Amino acid sequence: MAEPHGRSSYAPVEAIGQPYHDKSPEGHDIESVPTEERIDDPDYPLPTEEEKSTLRRVADHIPAVSFALCTVEFAERASYYGVVNIFSNFMQFPLPAGGNGAGAPPKGTQQTAGALGKGLQFSNAFVLLFTFLAYVIPIFGAWLADTRLGRYKTITLGVFICGVAHVVLIIGAIPSVLQGGNAIAPYLIAFFILAFGAGMCFSNMPVQALLSDFSRCFQTKYCPNSA
Hints:
Blueprint (H helix, E strand, L loop, with lengths): L48 H6 L9 H21 L2 H6 L27 H30 L1 H22 L2 H5 L4 H19 L2 H7 L16
């Protein structure tokens, strides 16, 4: 008997004979299962009370889409943590003399990497703001998914927004843009776009991965060759 984990699981019947499925006997109240949770599939009938107590229970396989969503979630988290840890130096310190023009110090020196030169207060304020937005916007992301777009479309939109944000960050880090003093506008645009994209993914990705094609009730499948 398959545990409530997925739609395509089965376990062999072990020495109990061929079970009989009656949809309305005592001990098996079909109406006790909510309509939206029933699986009306003859290959995966609901178990009787006898089968619940005698069949071996096995977990279903995890759908491939769940692994794909986990991969996307890892990429999104790498996107977030990959930039949040360098925002502080990028904003606080100026371009190091003799560097590559994109914020890196000269090789073999102990100079601090930097780009915008806005100082400690500016840097700390925006790093904290980014963290705040990344944990508040998921509330909006969850509302958007539940009431308007659905989880899948919200995740897709969030991933697209994150991708756009990284492209804008790269544009703002071009040496000619940095050295011309024009990097602050693309940086702040990308800053807020990335916070929104991360927030939209953060509240929906784990839920979608856990619920992808999963059943929420017990099911049975019979193998004619089982011992």
